[in-house]
């Protein structure tokens, strides 16, 4: 036998891990700096670590109470009902729930190019087809209503990323409102705010009170430092929020994840410190890196370095792992995650040496 025709499906290529690279290159993992996956440079909130430890002895139980408590805490934070909070196994899991709730077989979705690979993957898993809207480098990857509407052709879901990964570009609330207005009544506009904590631009949350065709995506993987537990959620309009119960897997967010999430939500200091350092690092990288960079939000900087694969490989041999953006369709760019002050300085210094050698 064989699986169904998966030839259109792609494999998610994550940034490489320290252990993996260290083993391959015979380096000491402790001497390496990983700035390739937009993870939190401070690690998880200490309160989340404690909550995970405390809950370890309860792992024989399904996460009934913690799932409900977390949805409630998030509902309060966003001023929505608990039904409107769709918890998932990572933001990716929440994207799956949205695709499952929206897509009939063969329906199209519209995704940004370059952009986050999982939108298309999730749609294809759910028997959808994928079209793209182009973000133009010549235009500094600007994200306006026109950018999207020019390529819109009645798709069922339109994915917007703000701040965008890997460019850092953002949408204004007004642009998202226009996109929602101009697209079909039966088109869902998903605003992915995975990096929402790192920007001063306000969340698009107000649109959910105005309309029934805009949903938000949020994650604990970035500012909250919980990428390893896999926890994220969608905030959806009240009108169809009850669909979650029909498309969700039983307890899609684990007991560990829910307990960690509840504790992390209470730890404002950890998030504030993470955002503050990321803001510093963004400016530092833009100011000091010997390459063209783009102005944007997020805990990362996109930089044009010529041969990204050669630069990333050489930096890696010097113990600094950054993201080669070839898989995003930008083979001339790397994405550097904001690290601690020490790690960021080291990364920039190594990259500057490497860029000079590779260019020569
Ligand atoms: C990291 C990220 C997510 C969510 O990742 P999870 O770890 O699954 O929560 C979603 N969208 C973008 C653009 C991201 O970079």
UniProtKB/TrEMBL annotation:
One of its GO terms (biological process) is L-histidine biosynthetic process. Gene3D superfamilies: Aspartate Aminotransferase, domain 1, Type I PLP-dependent aspartate aminotransferase-like (Major domain). Pathway: Amino-acid biosynthesis; L-histidine biosynthesis; L-histidine from 5-phospho-alpha-D-ribose 1-diphosphate: step 7/9. Keywords: Amino-acid biosynthesis, Aminotransferase, Histidine biosynthesis, Pyridoxal phosphate, Transferase. Residues 31-350 form the Aminotransferase class I/classII large domain. Its cofactor is pyridoxal 5'-phosphate. Its EC number is 2.6.1.9. One of its GO terms (molecular function) is histidinol-phosphate transaminase activity. It comes from the Archaea. Coiled coil: none annotated. InterPro entries: Aminotrans_II_pyridoxalP_BS (IPR001917), Aminotransferase_I/II_large (IPR004839), HisP_aminotrans (IPR005861), HistidinolP_aminotransfase (IPR050106), PyrdxlP-dep_Trfase (IPR015424), PyrdxlP-dep_Trfase_major (IPR015421), PyrdxlP-dep_Trfase_small (IPR015422). The modification N6-(pyridoxal phosphate)lysine is found at residue 222. It is an enzyme of class 2 (transferase). NCBIfam families: hisC. Belongs to the class-II pyridoxal-phosphate-dependent aminotransferase family. Histidinol-phosphate aminotransferase subfamily. This is Histidinol-phosphate aminotransferase. It comes from Haloarcula salina. The gene is hisC.
């Amino acid at each position: 036998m064989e699986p169904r025709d998966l030839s259109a499906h792609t494999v998610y290529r994550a940034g490489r891990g320290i252990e993996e690279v260290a083993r391959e290159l015979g380096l000491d993992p402790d001497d390496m700096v990983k700035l390739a996956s937009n993870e939190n440079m401070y690690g998880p909130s200490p309160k989340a670590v404690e909550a995970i430890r405390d809950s370890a002895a309860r792992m024989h139980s399904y996460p009934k109470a913690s799932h409900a408590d977390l949805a409630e805490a998030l509902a309060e934070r966003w001023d929505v009902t608990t039904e409107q909070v769709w918890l998932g196994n990572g933001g990716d899991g929440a994207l799956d729930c949205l695709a499952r709730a929206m897509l009939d077989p063969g329906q199209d979705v519209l995704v940004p190019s370059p952009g986050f690979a999982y939108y298309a993957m999730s749609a294809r898993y759910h028997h959808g087809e994928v079209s793209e809207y182009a973000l133009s480098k010549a235009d500094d990857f600007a994200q306006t209503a026109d950018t999207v509407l020019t390529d819109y052709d009645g798709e069922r879901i339109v994915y917007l990323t703000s701040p965008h990964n890997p460019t850092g570009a953002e949408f204004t609330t007004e642009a998202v409102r226009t996109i929602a207005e101009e697209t079909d009544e039966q088109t869902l506009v998903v605003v992915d705010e995975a990096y929402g904590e790192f920007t001063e631009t306000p969340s698009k949350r107000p649109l959910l009170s105005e309309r029934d065709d805009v949903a938000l995506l949020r994650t604990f993987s970035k500012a909250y430092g919980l990428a390893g537990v896999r926890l994220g959620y969608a905030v959806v309009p009240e009108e169809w929020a009850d669909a979650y119960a029909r498309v969700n897997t039983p307890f899609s967010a684990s007991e560990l994840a829910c307990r960690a999430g509840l504790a992390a939500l209470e730890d404002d200091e950890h998030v504030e410190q993470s955002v503050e350092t990321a803001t510093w690092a963004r400016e530092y990288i833009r100011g000091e890196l010997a390459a063209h960079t783009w102005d944007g939000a997020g805990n990362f900087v996109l930089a044009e370095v010529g041969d990204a694969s050669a630069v990333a490989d050489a930096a890696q041999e010097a113990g600094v792992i950054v993201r080669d953006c070839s898989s995003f369709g930008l083979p001339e760019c790397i994405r550097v995650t904001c690290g601690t002050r020490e790690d960021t300085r080291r990364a920039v210094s190594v990259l500057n040496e490497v860029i000079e050698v590779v260019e020569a």
